[in-house]
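Progress narrative, work stream C.
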Amino acid sequence: MGVELAAGKAGLTEMEDVNFTDLEVVRFVRDALTSFTVGDRENYEQLIGVIHHTKNLAPDEVALLVTSLKALSGAVSCFDNVHHELLSAIFGMSMWHYSPDVMDALVELIIALAAASGKYIDSCLDMLVRNFMPPYNFLELLKQPRGLAKKDHVLDRVHSALEDIADLIPLAPLRLKRIVCDKMPHSSNKEPMIVIYAENMLRLERSVMGELVGDMMLAAVVDKLIDLDVEIEWEDILQDDSGKGIFEMELEDVEETLDDDDQEGEQLPREYSSGRSFRGNASAEKLDSMLVLMFEHLKTCAKDGHLAKVFETLLESFQITVLSAYKSKFSQFVMFYACSLDPENCGTRFANILADIFLSSSYPPFKRMSAVAYLASYLSRAKFLSVSFVVKMLQRFQLVGWCWNYCENQDGTINPEAHRVFYSGCQAIMYVLCFRMRSAMDVPRLKSQLFLMPIEAILKHPLNSLKVCLPSIVEEFLRQAKAARLFMVSETFVFNDMLESELSRAFGGMERLDMFFPFDPCLLKKSDRFIRPNFVFWSMVRTTYDNDDEEGSSEEDVFEDFTGGSGENVVNDAMAASYEDHDIDLDEFDYSMNKMSITPKNSLKYRFGGELRGGAMQMPSRIRPSMSPESL
C-alpha cells in the first residue's frame, strides 16, 4: 500500500489530508507485521515509535495512537513471537498516561490479544494488574479531585477488561489470582501504593469473578495486614509500666490526650495517650490505612448481603495466619469489626470457634493459649455480645467446665509450665468476669448461673491458679468477687500492684501469652472510629464494688482471710450464707452440672458442705431453694 504511518509532523499532516478507512489501516498494519518477518523493518519500527510516544501528545498524535491501536486490534492474528519488541511496547503501556480515547483503544487491543492466542493471556493479565498502581509521579495528583477522577477512569477500564477476558477465557481468573498475589507490593513500598493495590484486590473479591478469586484476594490482604503488624515493635506500644496493673494503665490512657492534636483544635478520643501513639511509625500508619480499607469493604459486604461468605474466608485466614502470629497487635480487629456487623451469626461463630480450639487437645499448647486469650478479650470487649451469651460461653464445656474437668483429673500442685493451658483458661475466666461480673449480677437468672459454676473449686484447687495468673487480673477479680459475694477466699494475697510475677512469666512462656490481650484498645487513630462504637473500654465498666456500701475498706481487705478461721465448716457456713443471701436455688446446681457433664464427687461436698448419698447431692437443710428451676 501507499499508506505510511509517520511519527513526524509531515506524516501526521499527510494522514490528516487523506480519509483512510479502518480496513485500509488494518491492511497497512498487517503488511507491517508480515513484512518484518522477511526483513523489512521500516513500517514496523514506525509502529513501535508510535506506541512508545507517551509524553505531551498533541491532539493529532493522540488520534494517530488511537488509530494505530485499533488497527493492531484488527490484526492480532498476524502477531508472532518475532514481534516481541512491539508486544513489549504494548504490554509496557500505562493507561495512567493517556486520555480516555487512548485507554479505550488500548483495552480493546489487550482483550483482542488475550482472546486470539493462549500464549498472550498471562502477559495481558499482567499488564492490566500493573495498571492497578499509578506511576510514582501521580501520587501527589491522587490527593486532588482530578487525580481521583483519573484513578476512576483507569481502574474502571482495567476491571472491565479483566471481566471481559474472564468471559472469553474461563480459565483466566485462575491465572489472574496468582498474578495479582505475586505482584502485591512489598510492605516497604509507599503507603498509597500498598493501599490502592489492596483496594483493587478487594474490588476483584466483590466482582463477578469473586466466586473464583475472592477467597485468595481476601487471604492475601489479611497476610499483608500481618506483615505490617509484625513490623510494629512491642516497644512502640508498651510503656515502662512494670509497677502498674493492666486496668490501671488503661484508666491512665483515658485521662490523657495528645498535646499536638489539642493545638490543632481536634480533640482525640480520650483513650489515646501521648506515650502510645504511632505518629511517624510508617508501618503503623500503613496498617491503619489498610484496616480502614478493609472495614469499608466489610461494611459494603454487609449491606449487599455478602458478609456471611466473606466472614468464612476471614475466619479461615484468621486461624491460619493471625492466630499463629506472635502476639498480633491490630490486624485481628478485622475479625472484631466483621463480628460487630452481624453479632448473631458472625459474632457468636467467632467465639465458638475460639472455644473449640481451646478445648481441643489436637492443637499445640501455644495455639490453644492464644485462642483462649482471644476469646477472653473478645467476650470482655465486644459491646455487641449480650451478657447472657458471655455467661453461656463461660459455663458448660466452654471455659469453666473444661477447667473444672481438668482439676478433677489432677492431683499435683503449682507447675506453670506443665499446666500452662489450664492457667490460661483460669486467667481467661477471671479476665472476662472483671468486665462482665456486675452485668451478670444485675440479671437474676444469670446471677444464679454464675453462682452455680464451680469457679471457687477451680481457683482453690492445689494447682492454685490465683498465685500463677497475672496479679493485676487476680487482684481485680478477687475484689469484685468479694463485693459480689461470689465466693470466699481463705488466704491473704499481697501483690503490691505487680503487673506480672515469676509464676505468670513462667506459664506465659517466651511468647508471654500471659500478657496477651488481643482486643485491648485500638491505638490506630483512623481505624478506631470503626471499632469504638462497639467496644467496651475499662472506663465504661461498672464493677461490683462501685457504690459499695462498705465504705472505708482498704485494698488489702480484698485479699484478707475474712472467713474467721481456716476450718472446712467455717468455709461451708460462709458459702451457705452467701447462697441464702443471693436467693440461689441449689436444685439448679444439678441442672447446671448436667449441662457441663460433671459428676458430683467429694470435691463438691467440700464446696457445698453437703453429703453424697446414693450418688445425689444432699444439701444442708438451711440452703433450701426459694426459687424453682423453671423460674430461672
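Work stream C, second folded protein:
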Amino acid sequence: MRENFEWKVKRSNKTTLHLVCIIDNCTWKLRAVRRDEGTYFQVRSFVNQHSCPLEEVHRRHRQASAVIIGEVIAPRLQQHDGRLMRPKDIIADMKTMYGIQVMYSKAHDALQYALSLTYGTHEESFKLLPSFAYVLEQQNPGTITDLQCADDDTFLYFFMSLGSSIRGFRRCMRPVIAVDGTHLKGRFGGTMFVATAQDGNEQVYPIAFGYGDSENNLSWEWFLECLRGALGHIDDLVFISDRHVNIEAGISKVFPYATHTICCWHFGENMKKRFHRKDVADIMDSEARTYSEFNYNRHMEELHRLHKGAFEYAIAAGPHKWSRVHCPQRRYRLMTTNVAECINSCLKFARQLPMMTLAEFIRNMLQKWFHDRHAAARSMRHQLTDAAHLVILKRVEKCNYMTVNPIDWNIFSVKLKGNQWTVNLHLKTCTCNIFQMDHFPCSHALAAARERNLDYTSLCADYYKRETLIDAYSFPIMPVGHPSSWVVPSDIASRVVLNPKSKRQSGRPMEGRHASSSERTTTQSCRRCGQSRHNSRRCSNPPMVNEGPSISVPDEYRRKCSICHSIGHNKQTCPEKDSTVE
C-alpha cells in the first residue's frame, strides 16, 4: 500500500499460492508452496521489483480492505482529545500515511471492524453480561447487580452499583442524590440512568448506573427500586432531578419517605423558554438559591411585578420543590443536577460501546477516581477538605469588618453595615439560615467563634472533614480481569441474553446535546458593512447605507486612505493605488 501497487491472485489451491501484479507484463510476483509436514507455506519465488509504468498506478488500492484498514487504525481509535475517530479522519489518515484514496463506505466499515476488535461486538457483550456481573460481585464485595430479560431472553435492564460506592455514600456523603438519564449511542440505542452524590471536596461521587430501553415510567421505577435495594433506608434523603414526570412518579412510589426536588437551573431554563424573558429566569434562580425568607419574598414580589404569568408558573410548580428556603429537608449546597450531568459528559465516548464494555469502562474509571482521590485526600494539610477550606478562608475575610456583641457564652449578636444576625454556637444556628441549612459555618458564625477562640473545624459537619473524605475512598475497586480467566458457575455462564429488539434510528447519532437558548453563541458582525466573520477594523467592504437619521462624524475621526489620505475609501480600493505601484 505504501508503494501504491496492487496485486491479484493468479492461482490459489491447497498446495500452491501464486500472486502477480495487477498490471500485465509486470515483473513482480510471489509463489509459495505448502510444505509436506505441516500447514505452513514456504516462499519459493519472490520478485519484489515492479516494472509498471507510473500512469498505470491505482490510488484506490484493492488490498486496502475494510479489515486491513481496521487493523491499522485500531491502536489509535480514540484520539488525544477523547473523541472517537470518524470515517473522514480515517480517509485523511490513509491518504497521508499510504497515499490511498478510501471511499467513505469502506472507511465506515473499517471503523466498525476496529471497534469490534478493540471493544468486542454487541452480541458478545450481551452474551458475557451475566458472567461479568457475577465476577464483578465476587471481586468487589457488597456490589449489587441486576439483569432483567424478557420472556424470549432479549435484554431489558441492567443495574450496577459497586460496593465501595454504596459504603462510601452511606457513611460519608450528604444524603442528597442527583438522578438523570442520557441516551446511549450504540447500535441498539437505549438510555443510561445515573445516580450521583457529591463528596465534601465538591467532587462527583457516582453511586449507581442503570441501562434500559428509554426514559419511561417502568424503567425509572425499576432503576429506583434497584437503588433502594442497594442503599437501604436513608434518613432525610433528598432527590434532585429535572421535571421529568416519570422520575417524580417513580420517587413518590419507591421512596415515599424521601423529598423530591427539581434542579433550579432546569427550572430557570424552562421559564426562559416559556416566557422568553432572561430577567425572569435570573430572578427565579436568585429566589431559588436564597437562604432567607425575607429575600425570597422580595424576589417573588419583583417576579410578580415583572411577569404575572411567570409568578403563577413558579407557584404552580411548588416552592417546596425548587426553593431552598421551603424545602422540607436540607439540600445543603446542591441546587442543580450538575453532578449527574458531569458523569454524562465523562461517558460521552463510552456511551457508544457495547453494554459489557461500557460497564467495564465505568468500573475502570471509578477505580482510577477512587485511587487518585484517596491519595489526594491523604496529602491534604488541613483538617477540612481543600474545597471546604477555601470557602472558610473567603468567609473569614468578611469577619474583619463585623462587630460581635456577646449575649451569653454561646449566643452572639453580629452586626455589619446596619444589618444584625444572631448566632448560637451551641445549636449551630444563625438567623441567616446558612449555618443550619448547610451544616457549615457562615461568616457570622466564624466571627462569633473568633470571639471565643474556638476552632472553626468544630463548627463543620463531618461531611466536610479530611478524615471523612479519606474514609469515603478507602475501599479500592478491584478489576475483573479478562473473560478467559473468569471462573463462573455453569448455570450463570450458560444463561442466554439476546440483543434487545429496539434499535436506534438510522443515520449518524448526535454527539452532543441540543444547546438551550442561553447557550447559543451569537455570530460576530461588522458594524461598518453589516457582514459576519470580521469586525470593523479589518473591514475592506464599502460601508452600508443607513436610511435612518445619520450622525455626522468630524473628519478627523473618520478613517482615511493610507495612500492618498482621502476619506471614503481605504488602500485596497484607492484609485491611485496602481499609479503608486508604478
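Confidence is low (pLDDT under 50) at residues 547-551. No further action is required on this item.
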